[in-house]
Every structure is written in structure tokens, then in C-alpha cells.
Amino acid sequence: MSKVRTRFAPSPTGVLHIGSIRTALFCWLYARRHGGQFILRIEDTDRERSKPEHIDAILDGLAWLGIDADEGPYYQSQRMDQYNAVVERWLDEGKAYRCYCSKEELEAMREAQKAAGEHVRYDGRCRHLEEPKPGIEPVVRFRNPLDGEVVVEDLVRGRVVFENAQLDDLIIARSDGSPTYNFTVVIDDYDMQVTHVIRGDDHLNNTPRQINMFEALGVAPPAFAHLPMILGSDGAKLSKRHGAVDIRDYREQGYLPEAVLNYLVRLGWSHGDQEIFCVDEMTALFDIADVNQSASQFNPEKLLWLNQQYIIATPADRLGDELGKQLGAIGLDADDGPDPADVAEGYRERAQTLREMAEKARYCYEDDCEVDGKQAKKHLRPVILEPLKDVREKLAALDDWSESAINNAIHDTADAFDINIGKIGQPLRIAVTGGPVSPPIDVTLKLVGRERSLARLDAAIDYITERAQGQKAS
RNA sequence: GCUCCCUUCGUCUAGUGGUUCAGGACGCCGCCCUCUCACGGCGGUAACACCGGUUCGAAUCCGGUAGGGAGUGCCA
Length: 474
Fold this sequence. Notes:
The protein is mostly helical and about 475 residues long.
């Protein structure tokens, strides 16, 4: 059995789509699983739409996810000589021919076919042309077999049969001489010795034509596996309006690459009831035979859940690095507050993305801390004034601003006033964070730091004092 | 229109003729834990598109219907 070789062949005509990533992942996993090679090939034969920035996006995206190629990237734009050589050879051998039909003529033909309820296809009118038509730059068409059938033994779809009579003579070289997709794919997959073509569902219809071209080349076609599509959360084709489809958006929003991979691998593939797969498990367990045949809808909530699972499981120092970047992204400076790793430790169970974590920890990195009016009204009441003053004194007296020391101080106050820890905890939290939600109060105070904590407590005490006087006055 | 593909809870899926009045996960609801919020634990909600056939027996096999999707380009 020859070594498995798969390839991911995106065209740089847009962003690196989340659906494309899933395809890349399956190709990569399959190669890794079988100890084979994974090849990256950039299909940039469309010179109009191919852009260098899109190539960068592809490379960056794959690198971020850890999907590493053993070969490539190859660029089709650099392989024109190979394509041209085959076009010439096929022309000589009669496997291809020049077609002089104008776009208008083709259009009229299609209209007529449609009107007649026929399958729309090129009717081969230039097949037997003896003489070139002067003044027209012809395209080159592949001479597809007229009859018989092409059987695709698809690894996920099973046996799919196409009639050659339904296929037509596709263009392999444009009038400017440039080769087209269906042709270059075949040449490349052969040249690069690809053994398994794993790609999106949308290519299933191209497969019989490609098999015919492998035949013309005189070589055996690779195995094919067509993956079901990924739809948006409303069942429609995935697009911008479903939120993020660009893989870079996920990095920016604070998703962990292993969470994205884990989410994607479970779209169209499963291993019993298992939900969490680290990359090593995926590569050990993945098999094309377990890929299902139906399209799946993208579910942002589940991705969020998975991301949090990974946040919970990831060591604090790495989380800290990522959180530091997120803080920067929202205009905060990690140097203006606690070590982001400590914040991550306190917030890993409280945030689904690192971006969310940064937003929630804003109060740790800014001097200003606006207290939510409603919360102040609810929790910063005169009854708590004395306990708050007391705990403020105890905290100020601490020579060690540690969680346990802070915790002791709070408990002492609670005991002294014979109140529950919650009675003092929530006002403290409001005072020090501005809101009603944060990690355990001792952790929170530790993160905010002594200076800011005391200052904010003073502000809260002033606020309550004023409020108490107002009450007395009225 | 024509060709091809698909169809289990709202969503991702398990299930490959009987051990399943269908299991897990996300979401949602409830309870527990608890200084808040989470996390965690426990419980609940909810599906075999439809109609025929094969079979002692079908979510599982076959046919049809309906619905969805892809392709039908000098795009990939």
C-alpha cells in the first residue's frame, strides 16, 4: 500500500472560510492518521480574483491552528509550463480540441437547451472543426467520452454513477491560454502523487470529468471523499451574515485554536459519544469511514461552550499571554494591573472567550471604576456603612495583600458584626469592581490590588455616608 | 429545467435488522453546591420527513413522495 498523500487546495480569492478549514482539517488528520503527507497547494489560476493578502490569510490561519503542511505551498501560477505542455500534447493526440465559439453563441445555445428542457451542456459543435476560424482566439476543450458511464467510488458517498452523455467538453484553457481549474487540479493531483482527494461536496459533480482526464493522462485516479457542507445556524449557506466565517475573526475574538479544531472535527464526524478531542486524539481516531453524509449547521453556542472547556483546561501562563493580547486589543495595558495569568486563573470559569475575559477584567487595569447606579443603590446602603468602614481598616492594616489575609479580614468583620459573609461580600464587590459579578471576593480584591481597592472602598464609604445623611435630612 | 447529493431531538450527533416506546452533547428549564456570577453535580424538555414494500421483526434494507442542497461559467 502506497503512502497516503492528501492535499488542501484553497483558492486565494477570499478569506479563509471556516468551512474550508474543516476540509483542511480532515485532509490533515487523514494524512497524519496514516503516517502520510499533507500538501498545501494554492490554486491561483484566476488572476483576476487571486490576491496576495488572501494567500497570507490562508498561511496565517493554518499556522494558528497548527495544521502544518509537509509539502508546499505550491502555487499553480508557477506551474504554467506543466499545464501548457499537457494542453499541447492533448491537442496533438486529439484528446483536446480548439473551440471558436463566442460567448454570445454559447449563451444562445444554453438558452435554447433550457427552453427545450434539456440538460444544459456544450454540444460539441467545434469537435470536428478542420480549419481554424481566423481572427478568433480559441479556447481549448477536453474531448470527453460520448457514451458509457463514470463510476465514482466515493469514500463518504459510496458509489455514484454519472453518464458521460450528461457531461460535456469542458474548457481546459481559456482564449488567453491560461488553464482552468478542473484541468489544473488533475494535473497537479497526479504530479503531486495525491492518493486521496478530500474536498467539499460542491466538487462531487466535477469528479467524473476529472476522472475522465486522469484516464486521458493514462493514470489511475486517486480515491475521492466528498465532505458534506457546513451551513449557517439558520440552515442557509454559511456567509458573513452568520457572524464570523473568517478564521482570523476567531483568533481576534479570543477563541483557542484547539477549541476551534475540536468544534470543527465534530461537524460531520464523530467517535461514539465523545465530545472533547485533543489534537492527538483526533489524529489517532479520525477516519473517513466515520464521516457522515449530511450537511451540518454551524452552532456558535456549542463552539463557545467548547472554548470555555479549553480555557478551563489550559495552563494559566498561556492563558495569560493570550489575555494580555486581548487587553491590548481593547485598549488596556497589562502593565497597569495584575499579571494577566492571575486574572485568567480567576476568570477561566467565568468567560467563554479570552476577549470576554478581557472585557470583564477591565476594572483591574483602569484607575477609574464607575459603579453601576442600580447596583450601588441596591448594595451600598447605610446599614453596611459600619461594617464597610471596619473591613476597610482591617484591609488597610494588612501587611500581606494575599487572598488568605484578605479573606481573614473579611471574616473578622463579618463575625464582629454578626452578619453573613454575603452581606459584606457583595457591597465590597460593587465598591471594588463596579458591578455585581466577579471571582470570589478575596481573589477579586487581590487582583484589584491594595491601592485601588482601598481607594474604591473610600469612594463607596463616602457615597454611603452621603446617602445616609440625605436620608436623615429627609 | 436537467444531473448529482442529503433527510434521527431547535442544533451537533450515537445507532449499521431484534438487548432502544431511540443514547450522548450544546441550548433551554428546574434542583443542589454557593459571598455574586460561573464552574461542577443531579433531573427534565425534545427526534427516526412522509407513504408503501421486504421481513417473524426496520431508525436501520428497497421503492416512491415531499423538503433541502450542489452543479449546470473562458470561477474555483
